[in-house]
């Protein structure tokens, strides 16, 4: 949603240019230094057993050399060192077993599926504006504003809106919203179960995230009922967490999988519901979501089973979450409320791009030490030293994240944010191609957009064994969340993917 404010600012004549000095300020390097110190302690603790073996091995080797110098016989040597040998062997076995039983369990992504709506739900520009005019809810100024937003948005003519919005007048109701939710969630899950040959009763963990539609029973209960999932399933329903909730849901599923004593599967469903959340007023800050948000859903299958590594696509390497909600401006920058005449919508603050930049800076400051190669970390360290001892101002070193990641899935919230991240992270056009094309083909599908982007990269045949993928998303609160995946093998697109019938047409040339 941060992108939408950038688009609105352009309409007001305000330049949206978050340069590198603002997004990655000089505080970046200082904060990064502290992160290295904080990350060093858990690394030491996690490798304590391995490190403790080093002195023992050195002692044994020194003892052996001393005995050789004393010219002991082979029999005498064995008798003298029998207790040492058994002690060392027993300690090694104990350490190995302890390490195996206490190390975090790996989490694998078996497959994922993205919902592709029916063709009759497409909303071309001219139909969208004509429909908005016929509803009679918008004045001429609001209609012109929406037209300008659409032209600048980066969306194409094949995005989708729900059935209720195609009616004149629109028919938003809880019944229609349930129908939309069932259509997208069950569509994505049906395809996932077919592609993975998974019996739904094998699922031990279910996490569903949707910000604006939270019926009773919950969306997760709808899935349990539809697929008759087992009674002891751990199900969760995340609400109100914005476009970055997909990463939050993945992190929750990962944590649960890592602490499970038994092998099991987790399914993460990410969606948003438009039917009951269309804005029928004339407050321009609330009109932008109408122009950008479209129908979409993703379903992801995760596993903690070691033997699933042979068939999995990716291994989850890192999740880094940033929440700036303690700051009042950040908390209110994306806010659901009523306008002056009592119509409900989501208002977007003009401070949103600045807040998004701060959240991004904090997030990548934490992520950097985890993923950057040693060459980049040495450059950061050298810059720290130079800055400390130099009398002249030293420009902070901006690490090259292209050396850490092969593919980038930047939340397709809108054109402006993709532009800003491309510039400030010094990415190449190919790195943001998946984000731009997803925005063009499917619009802003909220928390599921990063999965449509990964599906695009797979459909292009670009994911090779060992490649690392960075998924980064922004959401209300204000939050910036990252997930890092490592490809276990050369990845091919799954059957019936969202790009299956159109990938050869992309990338398309976008209007300036």
Explain what the structure shows:
Helices cover 46% and strands 14% of the residues. The strands form two sheets. The chain has a nine-stranded mixed beta sheet with strand order 3-2-4-5-1-6-11-10-9, with helices on both faces. It has a two-stranded antiparallel ribbon with strand order 7-8. Helix 1 packs across helix 7, helix 1 packs across helix 15 and helix 4 packs antiparallel against helix 5. The N terminus is likely disordered. The two termini are 21 Å apart. Strand 2, helix 9 and strand 3 form a beta-alpha-beta unit. It is globular and about 90 Å long. It is of the alpha/beta class.
The structural class is alpha/beta
DSSP strand content:
5-15%
Side by side, the strands of the main sheet go 3-2-4-5-1-6-11-10-9
Query: What's the β-strand tally?
Result: 11
Rg value: 26 Å
């Amino acid at each position: 949603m941060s992108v939408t404010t950038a688009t609105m600012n352009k309409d007001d004549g305000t330049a949206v240019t978050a340069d590198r000095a603002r997004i990655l300020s000089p505080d970046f390097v200082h904060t990064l230094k502290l992160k290295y110190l904080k990350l060093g302690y858990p690394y030491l603790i996690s490798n304590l057993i391995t490190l403790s073996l080093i002195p023992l091995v050195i002692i044994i080797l020194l003892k052996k050399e001393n005995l050789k110098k004393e010219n002991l016989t082979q029999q005498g040597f064995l008798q003298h060192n029998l207790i040492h040998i058994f002690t060392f062997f027993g300690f090694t076995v104990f350490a190995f077993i302890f390490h195996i039983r206490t190390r975090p369990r790996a989490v694998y992504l078996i497959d994922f599926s993205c919902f592709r709506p029916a063709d009759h739900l497409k909303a071309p520009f001219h139909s969208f504006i004509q429909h908005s005019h016929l509803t009679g809810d918008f004045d001429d100024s609001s209609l012109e504003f929406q037209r300008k937003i659409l032209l600048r948005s980066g969306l194409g003519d094949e995005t989708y809106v729900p059935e209720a919005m195609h009616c004149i007048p629109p028919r938003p109701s809880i019944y229609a919203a349930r129908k939309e939710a069932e259509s997208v969630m069950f569509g994505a899950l049906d395809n996932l179960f077919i592609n993975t040959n998974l019996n739904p009763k094998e699922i031990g963990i279910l996490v569903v995230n949707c910000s604006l539609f939270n019926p009773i029973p919950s969306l997760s209960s709808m899935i349990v009922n539809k697929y008759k999932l087992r009674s002891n399933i751990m199900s969760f329903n995340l609400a109100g967490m914005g476009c970055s909730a997909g990463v939050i849901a993945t992190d929750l599923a990962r944590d649960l999988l890592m602490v499970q004593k038994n092998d099991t599967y987790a399914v993460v469903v990410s969606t948003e519901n438009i039917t009951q959340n269309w804005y029928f007023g004339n407050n321009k800050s609330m009109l932008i979501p109408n122009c950008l948000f479209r129908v979409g859903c993703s379903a992801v299958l995760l596993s903690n089973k070691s033997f699933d590594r042979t068939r999995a696509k990716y291994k989850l390497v890192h999740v880094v979450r940033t929440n700036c909600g303690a700051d009042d401006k950040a908390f209110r920058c994306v806010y659901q409320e009523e306008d002056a005449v009592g119509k409900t919508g989501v208002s977007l603050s003009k401070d949103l791009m600045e807040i998004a930049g701060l959240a991004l800076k904090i997030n990548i400051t934490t992520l950097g030490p985890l993923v950057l190669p040693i060459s980049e970390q040495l450059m950061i360290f050298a810059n720290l030293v130079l800055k400390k001892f130099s009398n002249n101002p030293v420009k902070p070193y901006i690490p090259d994240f292209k050396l850490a990641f092969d593919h980038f899935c930047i939340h397709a919230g809108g054109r402006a944010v993709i532009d800003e991240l491309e510039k400030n992270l010094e990415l190449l056009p190919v790195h943001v191609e998946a984000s731009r094309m997803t925005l063009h083909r499917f619009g802003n599908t909220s928390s599921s957009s990063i999965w449509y982007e990964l599906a695009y990269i797979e459909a292009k045949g670009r994911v090779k064994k060992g490649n690392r993928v960075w998924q980064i998303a922004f959401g209300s609160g204000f939050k910036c969340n990252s997930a890092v995946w490592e490809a276990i093998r050369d990845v091919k697109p799954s059957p019936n993917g969202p790009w299956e019938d159109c990938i050869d047409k992309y990338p398309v040339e976008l209007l300036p």
